[in-house]
Write a structure and sequence with these properties.
The protein has 263 residues and is α+β, with helices and mostly antiparallel strands. Helix content is 41%, strand content 14%. The chain contains ten helices and five strands. A five-stranded mixed β-sheet has the order 2-1-3-4-5, with helices on both faces. Helix 10 links the parallel strand 3 and strand 4. Helix 3 crosses helix 4. The longest helix is centred in the middle third of the chain and has 20 residues.
């Protein structure tokens, strides 16, 4: 028996990825073809226009987090209702920040997010990090402390493994370099004071800000954190290199070890 020709183009061409042809809804409803001389429009097109208008006229404060995600996903997935996807992302990761901080493979576990869209979300996150980092360039870092915290939080708070990062400063406390020195496990990163001081000398840095994250979310310093900070500070001081602080980044906050007088 000959198979009848497809009624719609979307039946003839299987979707190459989530950007091209939206999947049929669970309800089984299809968009009806337009009447002769008429047009049809998916129900979410008007919603998209309303969201854009609200953002244009009232700014980001008029939008909920899922609506901001929707606005972004409109561009990444143009032929699909993106509200359920935006809400699913927030349900999975908790906050807007956590969505963009999530690893690519975890983003792809959310229904509606394929490899291409996950990669685009990570590109947006990287752009945001670089914008925050640019705020530190050619400025005295110690007088831009909130910008330092914002940048470190964006870069590290949602990492699933510990990272040890160093901000190298010149004699004016301006940023020379920002480097991830080590990456460890979910609860430990090996740090070698000799290597830290050696790199500072190579860069002609006169001051350091140490930063690492706690993937558990709790930024409380451990005994090992305190001991390691003292070792680096003691090794650097005779060479004219000052350790200004050691910041520990958690998902919902941070701790300054200098502020706690722990070294």
């Amino acid at each position: 028996m000959t198979k009848p020709p497809p009624r719609f183009e979307s039946e003839a061409l299987p979707p190459a990825d989530e950007r091209q042809f939206f999947a049929q809804q669970k309800t089984g409803r299809r968009e009806r073809p337009p009447a002769l001389g008429g047009t049809t429009e998916a129900h979410y097109h008007g919603h998209r226009d309303r969201l854009r208008s609200r953002f244009r006229e009232q700014g980001e404060s008029a939008l909920a987090d899922y609506e901001i995600l929707e606005l972004i996903l409109f561009r990444l997935i143009p032929r699909r209702d993106t509200k359920p996807i935006a809400k699913a992302l927030l349900a999975r990761f908790g906050t807007l920040s956590a969505v963009f901080g999530a690893p690519q493979h975890l983003l792809q576990e959310v229904k509606g997010i394929g490899e291409t869209v996950a990669l685009d979300l990570k590109l947006i996150a990287t752009t945001a990090q670089r914008l925050l980092k640019s705020e530190l360039r050619n400025k005295q870092v110690l007088s831009s402390w909130s910008a330092v915290i914002d940048y470190c939080h964006a870069a590290m708070a949602h990492e699933t493994k510990e990272q040890f990062r160093i901000l190298f400063l010149d004699k004016r406390n301006a940023l020379i370099a920002d480097e991830v020195q080590q990456q460890g496990t979910i609860d430990h990163t090996p740090v070698y004071p000799r290597e830290v001081v050696k790199r500072a000398l190579e860069l002609s840095a006169t001051a350091l800000i140490l930063v690492h994250n706690h993937p558990s979310g709790d930024p409380t310093p451990s005994r090992a954190d305190i001991d390691m900070t003292k070792l680096i500070s003691d090794a650097a001081k005779p060479l004219g290199i000052t350790v200004h602080d050691h910041i520990i980044i958690g998902k919902d906050g941070h701790v300054s070890m200098k502020g706690l007088r722990l070294f």
